[in-house]
Amino acid sequence: MRHILYREQLRRTYERRFSLFGAVPRGCFWADEKKQFARFEVIFNELNQIVAKSYTLADIGCGYGAMLKYLMENEQLFIEGYTGYDIS
C-alpha cells in the first residue's frame, strides 16, 4: 500500500512542477537542456559501443520528451523507434 501512495505523491509532484514551468527542463526538475543533452550523449556513446545494429528505445520517465529531441538532432544514432513513458 505504501508504494501506491508514494507513486501517487510522486505523480502529483511532477504534474504540479510541469504545470508551473511547462515543457522545459525546469518543469521536470532538470537544470537546463545542455546538461540533459550531455547526459544523453554519455548514455548513447556507451550504448552504441555495445549494440552493433539499430534498435528501438523505451524511455521510461521521459518527462517532456527531451531525449526524443536529442535523438532527432543526432542522426548518427541507430534508433529505429522510440516510445516515451512517464508517470503523469
What's the short story on this structure?
The protein is α+β, with helices and mostly antiparallel strands and 88 residues long.
What does this protein look like?
This protein has 88 residues and is an alpha+beta fold. It is built from three helices and two strands. It has helices at residues 2-21, 33-50, 66-73; strands spanning 55-60, 79-85. The chain has a two-stranded parallel ribbon with strand order 1-2. The longest helix has 20 residues, at 2-21. The protein is globular and about 40 Å long. The protein starts with a helix and ends with a strand.
What would the keywords be for this entry?
88 residues, alpha+beta, two-stranded parallel ribbon, 2 strands, 15% strand
The structure class reads alpha+beta
Largest sheet: 2 strands, parallel
Strand order of the largest sheet: 1-2
Helix-strand topology string = HHEHE
Counted by DSSP, the helix tally is 3
Tertiary shape: globular
Uncertain regions spanning at least 5 consecutive residues:
none
The average pLDDT score comes to 90
β-strand percent reads 5-15%
* N-C termini distance: 19 Å
Helix content: 40-55%
Radius of gyration: 15 Å
Q: Give the number of DSSP strands.
A: 2
List the helices and strands and how they pair.
Layout: H1 2-21, H2 33-50, E1 55-60, H3 66-73, E2 79-85
Parallel strand pairs: 1-2
